[in-house]
Design goal:
single chain, 391 residues, alpha+beta, OB fold (Dihydrolipoamide Acetyltransferase, E2P), eleven-stranded mixed β-sheet, two-stranded antiparallel sheet, 15 strands, DUF2815 family protein, NA-bd_OB-fold, coiled coil
Length: 391
């Protein structure tokens, strides 16, 4: 029996793509296919949740190309082992789908047609592309990191499901309190014990959630696209009814640190000292020169005549603002308006006309006095409620 060839090795230092390491993620089939598929078919379309991340290997980077050669050697050994063990035929090698792709030469599916990988993903030009993954059934890969002092430390396991635990503990506590409130004297002591136990469970769930948040902060700090890592992987030959190929299982991972987050830029690259000085000058001109809110309120109060405020108006004791209540429409006087008296200074000296004498009506007895004709008032000018006597 032939000796099995080596299919496990370490990469060089590489930069991970978008990672799926905090929690395993399942790949789902096309949404349109999912709508028309039966329940059993839907389950088949969903892959097993997996951990992993993709990697782009630059053809112009010597360290990256060393990793490419390692992966190519592992892939060939995995194929040779599959043929030797009669899991593959020679034809399987010809049609096999290798997990390591040359983005400039290899084709992928884009909908119903086949295109070059670079046509669909232009950013992969002049790169090899590979995806390292590990089924959740095999467990999370071992992950350690080198801290700022050069000490190798184990990255703590994520704590998942804390939000649901808190909700369940809170619901149990509410139920226990409700049972205590309606319990009779014989059952009251036992109900009290249940309340205390539910309270402790809620506190423990909250403590666990606080710890989970601390772990998540550390993960976000260390695990991100663009981080420098070294991985150990195993090339595995596979065969299904639809074809054959080689994939790369992620076994362990060391986070080297010092990576640049994908799509991010250093602050000093974007904002220079001159930029900051210009921003300060803009703020002094546009922001600091404007009157403050307190100045606006003081100006408003200066023009407010509090003596004329209606006694029914409410004054806020803290802010001094007057809440003016709606006023009724002022009644229109039915008396004849008095003539305007013009002072001498307002009369033109050239005008010699004398003021017309006022007409004094003669006094008549009440018997002979005629009743004055009613005044016609338009509806739009008078409120019925203000003048009930007129209608």
């Amino acid at each position: 029996m032939a000796t099995e060839l080596l299919t496990h090795a370490k990469t060089g230092v590489i930069q991970m793509g978008w990672p799926k390491l905090y929690e395993a993620v399942a790949f789902k089939g096309n949404k349109d296919d999912d709508k028309s598929a039966k329940k059993d078919d839907k389950k088949k379309n969903e892959s097993t949740p997996a951990y992993g991340f993709p990697v782009l290997l630059d053809k112009d980077d010597p360290d990256h190309m060393r990793t490419v050669r390692i992966l190519q050697k592992l892939s060939k050994n995995a194929e040779d082992n599959a043929i030797a063990l009669k899991k593959w035929g020679k034809k399987d090698r010809i049609v096999s789908n290798d997990g390591l792709k040359d983005a400039d030469e290899d084709e992928i599916l884009d909908g119903d047609k086949t295109v070059l990988m670079t046509d669909k993903y232009p950013n992969r030009a002049n790169h090899f592309y590979v995806n390292f993954s590990r089924s959740s059934k095999a467990g999370r890969p071992g992950i350690r990191y080198i801290d700022d002092e050069g000490i190798l430390r184990e990255l703590p396991e994520p704590i998942l499901g804390t939000k649901e635990d808190i909700q369940a503990a809170q619901a149990n506590l509410n139920d226990a309190r409700a049972a205590y409130a309606t319990a009779d004297e014989d059952a009251r002591e036992e109900a009290k014990t249940l309340v205390l136990e539910a309270t402790r469970n809620l506190e423990e769930a909250q403590e666990r959630d606080a710890k989970a948040k601390e772990v998540k902060v550390l993960w976000d700090k260390l695990v991100y696209p663009g981080q420098n890592v070294q991985a150990s992987v195993t090339a595995r030959a596979w065969k299904t009814q639809t074809g054959s190929g080689v994939s790369y299982r992620l076994d362990n991972l060391t986070i080297v640190g010092g990576g640049v987050r994908d799509g991010s830029f250093e602050y000093d690259e974007d904002f220079t000292d001159e930029d900051i000085e210009a921003l300060i000058a803009w703020r002094d001109k546009h922001v600091n020169a404007k009157p403050s809110k307190a100045d606006d309120e003081a100006a408003l109060l200066a023009y407010t005549d509090f003596d004329e405020a209606d006694s029914d108006d409410e004054v806020d004791e803290d802010t001094g603002e007057i809440a003016v209540k709606p006023r009724r429409k002022a009644a229109v006087s039915r008396r004849r308006p008095k003539p305007v008296e013009v002072e001498d200074d307002d009369v033109d000296e050239d005008e010699d006309e004398e003021e017309a004498p006022r007409h004094r009506p003669k006094k008549t007895s009440s018997r002979g006095r005629r009743k004055p004709a009613p005044v016609e008032v338009e509806d739009d000018d008078v409120d019925d409620e203000d003048y009930p006597d007129m209608f």
